Amino acid sequence: MRGVLACGLIATLFIGSRPANAQAVTLQIRPRAGDTLRMRLDQQSEMTGVKRTSNSEATAMVIATMHMYSRAIVEASSEKNTTVLAVTDSVQLSTTDERARLGLVQAQAQMRGQRIRFHVAPDGTVAMNETDGVSRDVLQVVSLMPAAFPKGPINVGESWVREMPLPNGSQFGAQTSGKLHVTFRFDSLTHGGEWAFVSMRGEMQPLVGYAPAQNGDGERAIVNGTMLVDQKRGWLTESWFTIVVTSTMSPPLTSGGVTMHMQMRIMQHMQTGERR
Hints:
The protein is mainly beta. Helix content is 11%, strand content 55%.
């Protein structure tokens, strides 16, 4: 849960841009020191499980929602990186799982007022200090963030590829091991050249030589998204993301056991308010 929430918070800090010339744009993190941007993140997660045997099938679904309001305070900016302090002002969590509701109340209390300091390089690489007292879950998510941008100017219609490793273990409710292969595309430049639309599509690829867990048929993760970049502001002003992770566990053919299919669908929408 912390990993998912951290990804959502980091996503609000992840994209910025600056016009390079009339034909091409250099995508960079270049916010102005002293700016404070107020953001809203809406997220819905749907976990579906299907259990099949030789003569029956059962399905269960759990839906969880999050509404988070936060501020991004640009503390300092240089040619090498930008220092941003993210402050969580309020969080509203809900779930259809009765057993998990008490945990959500505790999570809301823990997240409210949380302060996380990031150092963002011009190419989109995110880093932070472990000494800031942030949980290891959040640190792991930040360390896996890929650099999002090409090194030089890019034209409308061009694409680029980035990869990020995924640690062995359970991510988003499914067993994962491998890397996320993401293709970005500069789709259009509108509103007098101030708004840049960037789309992305990625999927998980297993590590070379990786062997799934016993009786595991493997897992698959796909991410799709669109980002609206305000070049004048130098910040991501709105984004839409969908992440789908599926996992299947099958018994040996001779056992007559239970086959489990799991799917986690995460939908995020982020908006940034006016600069203050």
